[in-house]
Amino acid sequence: MRTALVQVGILLCGRGKPEDLAIIYRIEDEEARRWITAEARKKSGLALLEEGPNETELSQVPPSPEGIIGYVTTGSFSLSLGEGHAVGAIPLKQYLDLQKQAQRLRNEGKSLVKVRNRDETICRTALIDLLY
After folding, report:
1. How many Å apart are CA 101 and CA 107, to the nearest integer?
2. Could you give the CA distance from residue 52 to residue 74 in angstroms, rounded to a whole number?
């Protein structure tokens, strides 16, 4: 089980487009809570009215090298979806840990990760799902 890889679908929550060989990072609980709050405020239209971290500020937080859990194999922008999406690979154990984190954070079973393209310093938040 330690060496098993699973294929995951990745949907970016905001702007951006994941490229091939982008890096997938796990998010610690506290940072995940800030991302969830920022996304909820953005969707409700309160992002401009209230104080607090926004997507731009959170995307500039540098990820730790120990947080790397996988890589994007194919990434692009979908015109039909209207957002960036990708296919990647992560270890099964990391996927199960992300599912436990989503339950802890009561995030409706949505696992959050950060994705960073190789030539950029900005990380984007994304949702991952297991591909069958």
Report:
1. 9
2. 34
Angle between helices 29-44 and 92-104 (to 10 degrees): 60
* pLDDT for 105 beyond 60: yes
Task: Look up residue 115 and give its amino acid.
Answer: V
State whether residue 9 is helix, strand or coil: strand
List of domains in the chain: 5-130 (2.40.30.110)
- Residue 74 CA to residue 87 CA, distance in Å, equals 5
Contact 29, 104 (CB under 8 A): yes
Averaged confidence pLDDT in the chain: 85
CA distance 115 to 23: 6
Is 97:116 a contact under the CB 8 Å cutoff? no
Q: Return d(Cα 132, Cα 118) in angstroms, integer.
A: 27
- Residue 51 corresponds to which amino acid? E
Q: What letter would DSSP give residue 62?
A: P
